[in-house]
Amino acid sequence: MKIILFAFSLLFLSTPTKLVTGDGYNIGDVATDFSLPNVDGEMVSLADFEDANGFIVIFTCNTCPYSVAYEDRIIALDKAYKSKGYPVIAINPNDPAAIDGDELANMKVRATEKGFTFPYLQDVGQQVYPQYGATKTPHVFVLQKEGENNIVSYIGAIDDSSRKPNKVKKRYVEQAVDALLAGESPSTTTTKAIGCSIKTMR
Amino acid sequence: MKPNLLLAILLFSSYSFAQSTDVISMDYQQLKPLLYQNSESIQVVNFWATWCAPCIKELPYFEELNKLENVEVLLVSLDFPKHKEKRLIPFVEKHKLQSRVVHLDDEDENYWINEISTTWSGALPATLIYTKNRRGFYEQSFTKNELFNEVKSYF
Q1: What pLDDT does residue B21 have?
Q2: pTM, full prediction
């Protein structure tokens, strides 16, 4: 009985917003592929992009002001780098049961409103973000394709000025992808920025 | 005095009649001393924002903590600078927050997140608890019990 009570109390101790802290990826790790629903109704996998040289995977969502503040900059990244072989793949890691506004239907509305030029996928069952080690939105993982594998080459922020786009001095993701395009390793491989905790029921 | 200035003052004073709430904005170098106070009290520093739902949910627990003897709570808002007057200050007034509230306005997040804690990925809410002898950083939401139990462990 005591064990049952203990287990029961653990259930209540876990809050809807508690982070699922896996170790996640380090630079150089092989990133997992996935098959997730896009706002257009199709399922999307990294393997679908046969011509890509890599990916700019961005965990982001509808409901986080930091994500919203970065929407235009994410669109700009896709426009700049998709043609060079590094498309943006946006994944919403939030459990829509834990927060209003992050249902696939809401995502579709936002993608249409903003004219997203990239897939905006729902992490159904919250299976993908813990493997990557995303802890917040937005959270970027730049991947470099090497044969069949996608190697994690950069983890972190889009740039160094989340709240003031006009004060950006360092464009971390651009620097990382530019380095990969030049056949080099990014000089800055991990950065941090403020973001919203990922919303789950666990 | 120009009439429109007088009008502005009248409007302002009728708007905030009881007390004029001011939330000081500071950069990390100005905040830093508040994260290293040489105090006998347990210092609890909560990083939050008015738009952060889990932050707002746990805010009353921090307000209750602040009432305890030997505990001092500092609420560090990461609201957008453009929302300070429209959202942050009205929120502080509406909820009559008693804990000290400051607004961290410093763009170099990649620097100060690691300075505050290398274990912090940058997600909100997050909380620093420290005494002269011990520091702990928590990138998580707290229930009331969790928060009080954690702070008690610093006594």
Answers
A1: 77
A2: 0.87
